[in-house]
Amino acid sequence: MALVHLHLPAQEEPCNYLPGRSATTEYRVMTQVSPEEHEVLLERGWRRFGPQYFRPVCAGCAECVSLRIPLATFRPSKSQRRAWRKCQHLRVEARVPQADEERLALYAAWHAKREADRGWPASPIGLEEYARTFCTEHEGAWELDYFEGDRLVALGFVDETPNAVSSIYFFYHPDVAHLSIGVASVLFEMAWARQRGRSHLYLGYRIAGCPSTAYKSQYGPHELLVARADFAEAPAWSAAVAALAG
Question: How many CB atoms lie within 10 A of CB 202?
């Protein structure tokens, strides 16, 4: 059974996605969350990062919409198929999340590129902080490693529940950006979820006015969470077609 160590009251702060707006997020710090309990949270719009579970509860704003892909009906666009073909030489291996100098260097290279291209603030971390951030013990947590030959070029973190896989975080070395590996990674995660017998891939929140999340609408058909169901309520998801992806 999940142990709730801390339930933080939602506080208003500047929105990280939509300039000029404020955001309110509810947080719970929990451990020993079973895959079944995690699925209940996912179905109601919660996300996990490390031991923190969170969801937006902004008054008067519902732009952060949980999006999931039913694997049985998904149809890739032309651009997604091209990205998939360009990455077919990569080898993908799943393992329990781990921390070492190779993974830390890959993360540092990716973050430095984001700092240069998108103005992200510098965020140097050491091995211990990397482990605390990405390798928290959690039942159902997996790391998907992407190899070009023997070289680790990309890494994704996912959670597995009884009926779904939840995509958490993905980063790659800048010198493989030409492979459209960010686009292809979603297809690799879907393929892995199918192999595991799961029915859905959760992609987190889609904010239509934020390019860094709006891309999620290009995978489809997909489903969007309707409202924010409480634990005593049954969640409702509506079907939606994919945005034009090329």
Answer: 26
Q: Which of 29, 33, 27, 37 is nearest to 57 (CA)?
A: 27
- C-beta neighbour count of 242 within 10 angstroms: 18
Q: Is residue 206 left, alpha or beta, with left meaning phi > 0 and alpha meaning psi from -120 to 50?
A: beta
Query: What are the two backbone dihedrals, phi and then psi, of residue 122, each rounded to the nearest 5 degrees?
Result: -60, 140
What distances in angstroms separate CA 210 from CA 16, 61, 130, 167, one per listed residue?
10, 14, 27, 18
H-helix segments, 93-159: 101-118, 127-134
231: DSSP letter = T
29-70 residue pLDDT tens: 988 899 999 999 999 999 999 889 999 988 888 899 999 999
Output the six-digit token pair for 64: 């952060």
Instruction: Using a cut of 0.85, tell me whether the model's pTM lies above it.
Output: yes
As beta bridge partners, residue 1 has: none
25 vs 28: CA distance, rounded Å: 10
Token pair recorded at residue 23: 């955001």
pLDDT band at 246 (very low <50, low <70, confident <90, very high): low
Residues β-bridged to residue 51 = none
Whether omega for the bond prior to residue 174 falls within 30 degrees of 0, making it cis, is no
d(CA 139, CA 95): 13
Sign of CA dihedral 171, 175, 180, 185: negative
Measured between alpha carbons, how far is 3 from 1 in angstroms, rounded to an integer? Answer: 6
Q: What is the per-residue pLDDT for 225?
A: 96
Tens of pLDDT along 143-185?
999 999 999 999 999 999 999 999 999 999 999 999 999 999 9
